[in-house]
Amino acid sequence: MAKKSKKQQPGGTPATVALTAAGVDHTVHSYEHDPAHPSYGEEAAEAMGVSPDRVFKTLVADVDGALTVAVVPVSGTLDLKALAAAVGGKRAAMADPALAERTTGYVRGGISPLGQRKKLPTVLDESAGAHPTICVSAGRRGLEVELPPADLATLTKAVLAPIGRG
């Protein structure tokens, strides 16, 4: 079962530190990560007992040579063409995982849209607005943070656009 906490845990991640510093009301959920699970996002949804359309994965893409963060529901996939259009680009492809890790400061499966080493342009799938709160990675596998999507958009300066499919 997931643990909940509204106060900063000792040794918090850059994501939780950023949320606390900004004074954003949030809940941290931790769970035992299973390295054998085929999907980090689906594992998080199952562990927290939350619908997969409320748990969002953070993906890093290359849009016309610039790294861009896409935040989409784990229940679907990223529409790269829509992502490129959302930031005024022509072509998008998934970023090299090692480059994404170096740039954000997080490991794959634990990349958070918050508290990244280098602030990247961010696009949040517009479906997030249908929920009072959504969950995103808190900066490591087995740790999620739940917050209102408007607060996530404000903190990351995200553009809201229809970038998720299915």
Describe this structure in words.
The chain is an alpha+beta fold and 166 residues long. It is 25% helix and 30% strand. It contains five helices and eleven strands. A five-stranded mixed beta sheet has the order 6-3-4-7-10. Strands 1-2-9-8 form a four-stranded antiparallel beta sheet. Strand 3 (56-63) and strand 4 (66-73) form a beta hairpin. The longest helix has 9 residues, at 14-22. The radius of gyration is 14 Å and the shape is globular. Mean pLDDT is 92; it is low at 1-10.
Radius of gyration: 14 Å
- Which spans have pLDDT < 50 for at least 5 consecutive residues? 1-10
Any idea what the shape is?
globular
Please state the average pLDDT score.
Answer: 92
**Helix-strand pattern:** EHEHEEEHEHEEEHEE
Total strand segments: 11
Structural class: alpha+beta
Strand order of the largest sheet: 6-3-4-7-10
> Mind describing the biggest β-sheet?
5 strands, mixed
Q: Please estimate the helix content.
A: 10-25%
Query: What is the terminal separation in angstroms?
Result: 28 Å
Query: What portion of residues belong to β-strands?
Result: 25-35%
Discrete helix count = 5
Keywords, please?
166 residues, alpha+beta, 5-stranded mixed beta sheet, 4-stranded antiparallel beta sheet, 5 helices, 30% strand, disordered N terminus
Task: Offer a concise description of the structure.
The protein is α+β, with helices and mostly antiparallel strands and 166 residues long.
